[in-house]
């Protein structure tokens, strides 16, 4: 084989390998494909995984869903502000000028009082393993309608569901995937 045709063969082999990689890497990411077939932006998935304050338990195929869900919960949604009691660890309250340290012990376990209303535990239920003990469909329904799953016919108060209801199905599914990956926790008084 001439040097030139050797070079062509090598270049082709490299091109084939790169293509194979390009196909394999998103597939390992679980694709995180939305209904339009587009993957979640990888920089947001990475950011989400980097800012999650607790150890996450998920399958590799769900990485993009969990990472993007973490981005929505921890960088956008502010769930920790209402659903963790207290939101910050002792000495880690940014509102007191301290370097932020989220309260990981009671992370998203509810128990904050808002007048007569108390935020709920949205960590995986100890028995069912489902976040807030809701199936994905139930969770999406709550976030869209604000209908209280525990008190039929009543609307959740304080909880900014009118805002969250504008998220896409894909976003809500990602939030659910993240909430499924965090550890179960209880509020401090339990
Ligand atoms: C401003 C405070 C606040 C924020 C921010 C907030 N919530 Fe809530 N949430 C509440 C309160 C309070 C309740 C209980 C309301 C009631 O009793 O009427 C609640 C209830 C819920 C419920 C119902 C759970 C059940 O099974 O009963 C879910 C699910 C939920 N929140 C998810 C979330 C998620 C996810 C986020 C972030 C994307 C979030 N919340 C952000 C205050 C908040």
What does this structure look like?
Helix content is 44%, strand content 2%. The chain is mainly α and 190 residues long. Helix 5 crosses helix 7. The protein is globular, with a radius of gyration of 21 Å. The model is unreliable at 20-27 (pLDDT under 50). The structure holds heme C.
Brief rundown of the structure:
The protein has 190 residues and is an all-alpha fold. The protein has helices spanning 3-28, 42-51, 63-77, 79-83, 136-145, 161-164, 169-181, and strands at 113-114, 117-118. Strands 1-2 form a two-stranded antiparallel ribbon.
Range of strand content: under 5%
Q: What is the end-to-end distance? A: 76 Å
Structural class: mainly alpha
Q: What would you report as the Rg, rounded to the nearest angstrom?
A: 21 Å
H/E element string? HHHHEEHHH
- Helix tally equals 7
Mean pLDDT over all positions = 89
Low-pLDDT residue spans: 20-27
> How does the overall form come out from the CA principal axes?
globular
Sheet with most strands: strand arrangement: 1-2
Count the domains.
2
Per DSSP E runs of 2 or more residues, the count of β-strands stands at: 2
Range of helix content: 40-55%
Major sheet details: 2 strands, antiparallel
| Ligand species | heme C
